Amino acid sequence: MKAWVYNEERELEAAHFADYLNPATTAVVSIDMHRGHLDDSPDCPCPAPRARDVVAPIDSFHDSARALGVRIVHVKSVLRPDGVDDIHGIPSAWRRTFPLHVGAIPNADAHAIEGSRWTEWMTRVEPGDMRVESKRRLSAFYPTDLDFLLRNQRIETVVLNGGFTDCCVLNTAFDANNHNYRVIVLRDLVRGTDALLESAALAMMSLHLGLVMDSAELLRRWRG
């Protein structure tokens, strides 16, 4: 089978990773594909413009995964309207550090506020999909019930897509690994802050956290 190791495509022995490739014990975890990152308006509160081009491919991959019986979990950041989770408590670090690189984000205080348009899904959520809408920080596991949900479904492998590769995807991959899940990251269905950080995050995940694969290759393995 083909996978990416330190950003080089390699042919690996599929039998060595058979426990990663069982669709019956796998869930796809799609991270933060919501309007607060993907809207193309100037008041988008935390823009991730590089991820806009994977919305349709993620939808297509999810359709194929559903057809094979693989469960889909959509995870997004949602903060209480009064800000006690963040800006009116101990603010998330990114609010001060990320602008050092990208410049001021004028509408950042509106990011992920419960009930706002910024928490609307941009990828398609179908009946039967699972949703986790209480992510307050960078990992899809914190402080959410994702681990409970996965274990209650007897999930052993998580397949990650979404954004940012170097932020929430990377943090989720670390937490999934530390919770003893097998991790697969879909190289073509994640996007980072920029190409450099995306590449670095994928390299780290491929060495320490699990498999980095292309979605078509994973589907081929599931179908086989």
Concise summary:
The protein is an alpha/beta fold and about 220 residues long. It is about 30% helix and about 20% strand.
Account of the 3D structure:
The chain contains eight helices and eight strands; from the N terminus they run βββααβααβαβαβαβα. With 224 residues, the protein is an alpha/beta fold. The protein has one domain (2-78, 120-223): Isochorismatase-like (Rossmann fold), CATH 3.40.50.850. A six-stranded parallel β-sheet has the order 5-4-3-6-7-8, sandwiched between helices. A two-stranded antiparallel sheet has the order 1-2. Helix 6 (165-178) packs parallel to helix 7. 42% of the residues are buried.
Q: Which tags fit this structure?
A:
two-stranded antiparallel sheet; 224 residues; Rossmann fold; alpha/beta
Q: Ends: how far apart?
A: 11 Å
Shape: globular
Q: In the CATH hierarchy, what is the class? A: Alpha Beta
CATH architecture: 3-Layer(aba) Sandwich
Please tell me the total number of domains: 1
Q: Which whole number gives the mean pLDDT?
A: 97
Structural class determined from secondary elements: alpha/beta
The CATH topology is Rossmann fold
Radius of gyration: 17 Å
The H/E string reads EEEHHEHHEHEHEHEH
Placed side by side, the strands forming the largest sheet appear as 5-4-3-6-7-8
Q: Helix coverage percent of residues?
A: 25-40%
